[in-house]
Each structure stands twice: as C-alpha cells, then as structure tokens.
C-alpha cells in the first residue's frame, strides 16, 4: 500500500515539474536566426496578446500578409505588412533593426516594438513574440505565421500551449479562405 502511495506521489511530483519545462521550451527564443530564415511571404494565422487589445484590430481585417526581405545592411530587414479589408489592400513598409536574435522597430513618436522568434516544431511557421511600447504602456503579443496560409491542428495546439504558458487568452484565428494581398500595390 505504501509503495503504491509513493508511486502516485512521485508521479504527481514529476508532472508538476514537467509543465514549467514544457513552457520553457515553448517560450524559448531562437538563437540568432538567420535573416534568410524569415525572408519571404508569411500569412498571419493566429494572434493573441497579454490584454486582448490587439484582437479588435486584427478582427477587422480579412487577412494580413507579412513580407520580409533582406537589405544591403546586415543589421536591417525590410518589412511590408499588407492588410486586406474588403477589396482594399493597405500596405505599410518599414525597416527593422536586427541585433542578434532581437528585432527592433521605433517610430517618430517614441513608440517601439521589440520582437523575437520563439520555438516552433512547425517547419514552415514562425512564432513571433512582440513587446509593444505604446505611449508608456506595454503590450506583449504572440503571433503564429505560416508560409502555407494555414496550419495543421497539432501546430495550432502547440501555439495554444504557448499562449497558455504566457497566460494569454485564446487566439483570434484568421479565416484561411480569405485572399492574401500581394507585396506591391496594384495600380
């Protein structure tokens, strides 16, 4: 009887310690990813943040496409975000500084976004953690991006586990049937 009780207690003890280890792996930033790793087109699949405030902005869009391209400066990446709202594609082009495994963007109003790529087992996905500093307020968001425009259920479950580890609400998941915009505005 005592042996069975000890086994139960030990198994509960090991389970209680495995969750932090799983979260540590899921929230671990990638070590200095190559800019070539992010180059190209990425569709926003899902997004959540620490307060649930960015959800409203993302829900208004039919789709969001991100394009990354390397610049001649090894410490910069060109970034174009294209949001489709109805039949209109809104393009925003920015340059992002790269410092090791951290991406930094600052605007003229002293707002900033600092990002890093997190672990994902999905071979053609990115999980991006962005810390937004807007007028003295800090919002942390996690986004799941994919080259395919959709992900497998197990890949979405992994992302949901990352959100749970971060104590974030369930993500807003985009509709994969919505058309993505091209990188360059149509004339």
TrEMBL record:
The keyword Amino-acid biosynthesis does not apply. The keyword Zinc does not apply. Its main location: secreted. It comes from the Eukaryota. Residues 1-18 form the signal peptide. It is found in: Secreted. One of its GO terms (cellular component) is extracellular region. Keywords: Glycoprotein, Secreted, Signal. This is Apolipoprotein M.
């Amino acid at each position: 009887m005592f042996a069975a009780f000890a086994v139960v207690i030990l198994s509960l003890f090991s389970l209680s310690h495995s969750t932090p280890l799983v979260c540590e792996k899921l929230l671990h930033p990638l070590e200095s990813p190559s800019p070539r790793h992010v180059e190209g087109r990425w569709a926003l699949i899902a997004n959540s943040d620490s307060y649930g405030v960015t959800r409203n902005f993302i829900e208004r869009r039919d789709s969001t496409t991100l394009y990354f391209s390397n610049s001649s400066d090894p410490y910069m990446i060109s970034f174009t975000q294209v949001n489709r709202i109805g039949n209109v594609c809104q393009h925003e082009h920015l340059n992002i500084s790269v410092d090791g495994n951290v991406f930094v963007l600052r605007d003229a109003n002293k707002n900033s976004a600092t990002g890093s790529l997190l672990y994902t087992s999905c071979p053609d996905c990115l999980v991006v953690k962005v810390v937004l500093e807007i007028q003295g307020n800090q919002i942390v968001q996690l986004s799941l991006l994919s080259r395919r425009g959709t992900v497998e259920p197990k890949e979405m479950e992994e992302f949901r586990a990352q959100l749970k580890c971060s104590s974030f609400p369930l993500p807003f998941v985009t509709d994969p049937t919505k058309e993505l915009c091209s990188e360059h505005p149509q004339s």
